[in-house]
Design brief:
Elements lengths: L2 H9 L6 H13 L4 H14 L3 H12 L14 E6 L7 H11 L3 E6 L9 H6 L10 H11 L1 E5 L6 H13 L5 H14 L4 E8 L8 H17 L3 E8 L7 E2 L1 H12 L5 H17 L6 H13 L2 H12 L5 H4 L9 E6 L4 E6 L1 H13 L13 E4 L6 E2 L4 E7 L5 H9 L1 E4 L9 E5 L1
Parallel strand pairs: 1-2, 1-4, 2-3, 4-5
Antiparallel strand pairs: 5-13, 6-9, 7-11, 8-10, 8-12, 9-11
Helix pairs in contact: 1-3, 2-4, 2-8, 3-8, 4-9, 4-10, 5-11, 5-12, 5-14, 9-10, 12-13, 16-17
Length: 433
């Protein structure tokens, strides 16, 4: 079998066989297929696409390019929630403890943030002492013992995706639904969970810019998961403004804590209730979604979700006092109010701009090797649909940096205000299952 024949076949619109796809993934992983041939095939896929079977085979080959985790020793259905990334997305830190408090078993491998989106691991590491890497045995034992573990992806999981993603990033071949879907799902499937809920975000702060493109990606991933025998579902959620009010690592942890106390922002609280009810149904703890919502709400009202977060943090070496007393988190040296220059209604908040501004304040990284300032970020006071008066505070910028006045202006420019009233958009736009 020759790689050039595979490239030409896909270039001309042909359908690749299982053997050809596995030949490519194995060869690229072990270095026998060079970057230039791999990038040629990726570009052919961008233009010609892949059918459902091809995409599933690509996912399977990438999934088995390294280790897979066997969670069969966990007592119960292991569930996992994956977000395609967004600004202010601290969902796992509130949702995970809530479903675990209701008796579910959540085992999740997460990533770091890069660019304008924040990573769950970075938020976890803003809690002093928190460990993000556990052995497979420790991961499984913790899920069995307390119902939740969230860890970093090991180097042995899906090495083909790491290599292929880096190549796609520099060859203009990222925007292809089959390549995006197989990248996400190969990691999720290798991590071993029996049920997966995908939070597919759309809008200017998300990877998918439109609802239609997000629905296409979600449908593709749900099909892959079901083909692999996993209960896979998806929600399509709005990222045309930041999720919640907090953007930045320790600020987002504190917002997750507030939400577990019943004091969270409305959109984030609704996302936790909606996703939590689906996850409890996937875990076979409830029969219908309404029953699931009631259970999640009860875990908020009786404090069991907050106690589970503290238990989870302690189990992974973190200091649970920071969960029970969030005022222990240090604040940035500079907390700068950003004022509105006009009166009206918030029509739009540019999530991408807010995310990039938070990064420039120190709250994110441009390169994976960059250090993060856990105290830095942005705390919104207004959301889309809210009334604002001239001179009123739109948000606060938190930073330990000097000379970042241009970032403050960028933050101000992220808020778009009009005279007419604006309808508050829903957070969840669709549910695919």
């Amino acid at each position: 079998m020759r790689m050039v024949d595979i490239i030409e076949k896909k270039r001309d619109g042909g359908t690749l066989t299982k053997e050809e796809i596995h030949f490519f993934v194995k060869g690229y992983s072990d270095g026998t297929i060079p970057d230039y041939q791999a990038s040629a095939l990726c570009m052919a896929i961008v233009f010609r696409g892949m059918d459902e079977i091809e995409t599933a085979e690509l996912t399977d080959a990438m999934m088995h390019s390294g280790d897979t985790i066997d969670l069969s020793s966990v007592d119960g259905v292991v569930i996992d929630k994956h977000s395609t990334g967004g600004v202010g997305d601290k969902t796992s830190l509130a949702l995970g403890p809530l479903v675990a408090a209701c008796g579910a078993k959540l085992g999740k491998m997460s990533g770091r943030g890069l660019g304008h989106t924040g990573g769950t691991l970075d938020k976890m590491e803003s809690i002093p002492g928190m460990k993000i890497f556990l052995s497979e045995k420790e991961f499984i034992d913790q899920i069995n013992k307390i119902g939740i573990s969230i860890i970093g992806q090991t180097k042995e999981i899906d090495p083909a995706d790491k290599k292929l993603y880096a190549l796609r990033d520099v060859t203009g071949t990222v925007p292809a639904i089959p390549l995006i879907a197989s990248s996400i799902m190969s990691k999720k499937l290798a991590a071993g969970s029996q049920a997966i809920l995908l939070d597919v975000k759309f809008g200017d702060g998300a990877f998918m810019k439109t609802l239609d493109s997000a629905r296409e990606l979600a449908n593709e991933m749900v099909k892959i998961g079901k083909r692999m025998g996993r209960d896979t579902r998806a929600v399509l959620t709005d990222m045309d403004q930041p999720l919640g009010l907090a953007v930045g690592n320790s600020l987002e942890v504190k917002e997750a804590i507030a939400t577990l106390k019943g004091e969270g922002p409305e959109d984030f609280n609704e996302l936790c209730l909606s996703c939590g009810s689906i996850l409890l149904q996937q875990a076979k703890i409830v029969y219908d979604l309404e029953e699931g919502r009631k259970m999640i709400q009860k875990a908020i009202d009786d404090g069991s979700g907050l106690r589970k977060l503290a238990e989870f943090v302690k189990a992974q070496g973190g200091d649970p006092n920071y969960i029970l007393h969030p005022e222990l988190f240090p604040l940035a040296k500079h907390i700068v109010p950003i004022y509105s220059e006009r009166s009206g209604y918030i029509r739009h908040i540019d999530s991408l701009s807010i995310g990039l501004s938070s990064m420039k304040l120190g709250g994110g990284r441009e390169k994976i090797s960059d250090a993060i300032d856990y105290d830095a970020g942005i705390l919104l006071c207004k959301k889309v649909g809210h009334r604002v008066e001239k001179g009123e505070i739109l948000c606060y910028a938190h930073t330990n940096k000097e000379g970042v006045e241009s970032v403050f202006q960028q933050i101000k420019d992220s808020f778009h205000i009009q005279n007419e009233k604006v309808e508050i958009p829903p957070i969840v736009h669709d549910y695919l299952h």
